[in-house]
TrEMBL record:
Record's keyword annotation contains Transcription: no
Pfam family, one: Asparaginase
Entry protein name: asparaginase
Similarity annotation: Belongs to the asparaginase 1 family.
GO biological process: asparagine metabolic process
Domain of life: Bacteria
Record-annotated L-asparaginase N-terminal domain positions: 3-190
Keywords on record: Hydrolase
Organism taxonomic ancestry: Bacteria, Bacillati, Actinomycetota, Actinomycetes, Kitasatosporales
Reactions it catalyzes: L-asparagine + H2O = L-aspartate + NH4(+)
Entry EC number(s): 3.5.1.1
């Protein structure tokens, strides 16, 4: 155990009643004061922002990414906790994981109940995150998510409950650790691709959109995203990654224009796979779409974003995206 830095970004864990609903307004020190700090851990707080996470932008997420790297420039820091809203936590955590090149843990956490709620879940989640961030046993595990007594790898972990305390899970995998009786029980180490470099600061940010397929779905919204200037589009397909011949044609045209197209599914768990034709994943892959394995929509979008931020040219971006998707399965 040692020094852990808490980077506060807002979310429900920092929310108070605003007269008509809850919104983030508490500083990181106020949030930290609610939690028991594990023995042997010293804590320093960085107040980066205080917003509900549905309002976060790519610029906000990149500011968080750069802040994490700046904090880890101090060798006295043993780990980082990021307090974050649950709505987009899975996206920010995965973005940081793709660019995390340090063995020290970065642990995201938050809450389903606001700061001053009786029996709120924030204090326990923050305690567990501090425990994980200060643990040598989790060095080399990348970016993690601590919630409801479990520690998850960032990759594949999504919000699975809108209101319940066990808000996060990897529907296609298992936690990397549990917290039992105040102690970490580590189950395995997630495998991760080689970390990407930090995106250059000050550049124009690419537009990356998501479009969901459904009965009666046509290419209208997909084409609208392309015409709006999207450099990448995530197609959220049905089943194992299926749409229609008309959508396939739209994907092929977009790829020909240099748009990076990723294929995921609206099904909660399992991989996308080339099984069906007549508009299915077989045809979509042939049209140039990159299948995203078990990554779901939000994290598939982050993978496309990171590929677009760190590579120039269609072929280089496609190769980068395939590399991010092809990370080995968890150990």
């Amino acid at each position: 155990m040692g020094q852990v830095v808490v980077i506060s970004t807002g979310g429900t864990i920092a929310s108070r009643w605003q007269g008509s609903g809850f919104a983030a307004d508490a500083r990181g020190g106020d949030v930290l004061a609610t939690a028991a700090v594990p023995e042997g851990v010293s804590v320093r707080v960085v107040d980066l922002m205080s917003v509900n996470s549905a309002r976060l932008t790519t610029r906000d997420q990149l500011a968080l990414l750069r802040t994490v790297h700046e904090v880890l420039a101090d060798p006295a820091v043993d780990g980082i906790v990021v307090t974050h809203g649950t709505d987009t936590l899975e996206e920010s955590a995965f973005l940081l994981d793709l660019h995390h090149d340090d063995p020290r843990p970065v642990v995201f956490t938050g809450a389903q109940l606001p700061l001053e709620a009786a029996d709120g879940d924030g204090p326990r989640n923050l305690h567990d995150a501090l425990l994980a961030a200060g643990s040598a046993a989790l060095r080399g595990h990348g970016v993690l998510v601590a919630f409801d007594g479990r520690i998850h790898a960032a990759r594949g972990t999504i919000k699975v409950q809108t209101l319940a305390a066990d808000a996060f899970a990897d529907p296609s995998g298992n936690p990397v650790a549990d917290v039992k009786d105040g102690r970490l029980v580590v189950h395995g180490r997630p495998e991760r691709p080689a970390p990407l470099p930090l995106p250059a600061a000050g550049e124009d940010l690419p537009r990356i959109d998501m479009v969901m397929h459904h009965c009666d779905g046509d290419p209208l919204l997909f084409n609208a995203a392309v015409e709006a200037g999207a450099q990448g589009v995530v197609l959220v397909a049905t089943g194992a990654g299926n749409a229609t011949p008309e959508v396939v044609a739209a994907v092929e045209a977009a790829v020909a224009r240099g748009v990076l197209v990723a294929l995921t599914t609206r099904v909660p768990s399992g991989p996308v796979a080339e099984i069906y034709t007549h508009g299915g994943a077989v045809d979509l892959a042939a049209a140039g779409a990159v299948l995203t394995g078990t990554l779901r929509a939000g994290q598939a979008r982050i993978a496309v974003l990171s590929a677009a931020l760190t590579a120039a040219g269609t072929d280089e971006r496609t190769s980068a995206l395939r590399g991010l998707i092809a990370a080995p399965a968890a150990a």
